[in-house]
């Protein structure tokens, strides 16, 4: 029995029953694929349902306000994905008469759609024989064939793309692609793969040569830089001070509390001696620390965040341009980045406003 047939048999028995698999609608498939990039299925599922409900067809998505899209997206991170989705939806309307493209060569023209997503759209919606190559597929193929080439090297990418295409079942590319991705997610997992009861344990090179834990090989990336964000939740009557982030850094145009960034972790007294703090806050400001330092990992940077409530609005000497007070109901509707969204979900009750 061929690799593909064995794999698809396994999938029929053990594959996941996911809502976006019950459709050939390229728009719905695209929504699910973009939401699931860098996101676990369990985390992405409620977002998928929310987006389908808010924008059941691509033209509705194209017409939406970016603020509304970002608000629905908040908590998922990687906001450029949401912005690219909006651009892509507009392009579907302007260049494809509102019909979401199902062909690989057309889908890949859309902003935010790379080779993987275009292959997923084309194979799932139109059965076009395009092999998807995501982290799961790299892992399964690297182990099954014992490939030592790094999956993130130029040559490695080429090698894996060729193997993936050779192995693809050209008559059932959609099912085959879903099968290999599920196999990687459920059976040939990154840690503790279920080799003992694997359908491939006889042919699998990594298993036979005891190299499962060293494959796939990945080249080390850039070293991440550390950044320290200190947030101030200034409360005035029944409103809270919020600030909208500008361009040129992470979280463009998303809302957060006024923040001071330091290059190193600093004590409270050093923070209060910081030039920005002295500029905006009174010397005797009382800062109420909330919770422990939170770490958020972004690509190539680690954000370490602390939060302080400032209950006396007079402690604020002056407002920076772009800092405005908002009622809580309005803050709910603002598009906030994940750090702020998660903080409010957990600690919102501590910021008691009258
Ligand atoms: S035997 Fe282990 S490493 Fe090989 S394909 Fe199966 S689960 Fe993956």
UniProtKB/TrEMBL annotation:
This enzyme's EC code(s): 3.2.2.31
Question: So which cofactors does this thing need?
Answer: [4Fe-4S] cluster
Catalytic activity reported: Hydrolyzes free adenine bases from 7,8-dihydro-8-oxoguanine:adenine mismatched double-stranded DNA, leaving an apurinic site
Query: Is Hydrolase found in the keyword set?
Result: yes
Give the molecular function GO annotations.
Answer: 4 iron, 4 sulfur cluster binding; 8-oxo-7,8-dihydroguanine DNA N-glycosylase activity; adenine/guanine mispair binding; metal ion binding; oxidized purine DNA binding; purine-specific mismatch base pair DNA N-glycosylase activity
* GO terms (BP aspect): base-excision repair; mismatch repair
Q: Which family does it belong to?
A: Belongs to the Nth/MutY family.
What is the protein name stated in its UniProt record?
A: Adenine DNA glycosylase
| Organism, scientific name | Sphingobacterium gobiense
Q: Which gene encodes it?
A: mutY
